[in-house]
Design a protein that fits this description.
Blueprint: H1 5-19, E1 32-39, E2 42-43, E3 47-50, H2 64-70, E4 75-77, H3 84-100, E5 106-113, E6 119-125, H4 136-144, H5 148-162
Antiparallel strand pairs: 1-2, 1-3, 1-5, 3-4, 5-6
């Protein structure tokens, strides 16, 4: 994240020099950050990732550095404190992304919602980690009342159904 055109030009130059390829420049989206887990055709409880407890010098988005080194200082709110209407819209939006991208069995979709209620798709993780007590989708499944074993069985059952192998 850069704060000025000059900083952007320097960052683009670093990317050109280091990777010898074009740089992707996007507008930073202010807003609350959410992640949505989908297993089979079921949307799990939506999780908000709250950065308000992080040290001031850190970025306020779910970067690799924040997740890997400051996960204990990050607040994971599941289910997210959003209205039923927002929950419905986010769930339907996420399921639509899942279908349009032709994803299978399970995934995690990251998005932001700005102060005006606009939803911005950030990225999809088509094979999110399934590490107990760490992975976001595992936390969402636990909020649904599923054990780790339940989550794994549901992912496998989805694949079995998809291949028409019965259960």
């Amino acid at each position: 994240v850069v704060e000025s055109v000059d900083d952007m030009q320097k960052a683009v130059s670093r990317i050109h020099e280091r990777f010898e390829q074009a740089a992707l420049v996007e507008r930073f989206i202010e807003g609350r950050e959410f992640t949505v887990g989908i297993v089979g055709n079921e949307v799990l409880p939506i999780m908000e990732i709250d950065f308000s407890s992080l040290p001031d010098h850190l970025e306020t988005f779910y970067s690799y550095r924040v997740k890997q080194f400051h996960g204990d200082e990050t607040n994971y709110i599941c289910p997210a404190k959003i209205s039923r209407r927002e929950e419905k819209v986010v769930s339907e939006f996420s399921m639509r992304v899942f279908q349009v991208l032709d994803l299978k069995d399970y995934c995690r979709i990251d998005l932001k919602i700005d102060d005006e209620g606009n939803i911005y798709f950030l990225e999809v993780n088509s094979l999110p980690l399934l590490v107990p007590d760490y992975s976001d989708i595992v936390k969402m499944a636990e909020t649904r009342g599923w054990s780790y074993e339940d989550l794994i069985k549901r992912i496998v059952a989805s694949a079995i159904r998809r291949y028409g192998l019965g259960e």
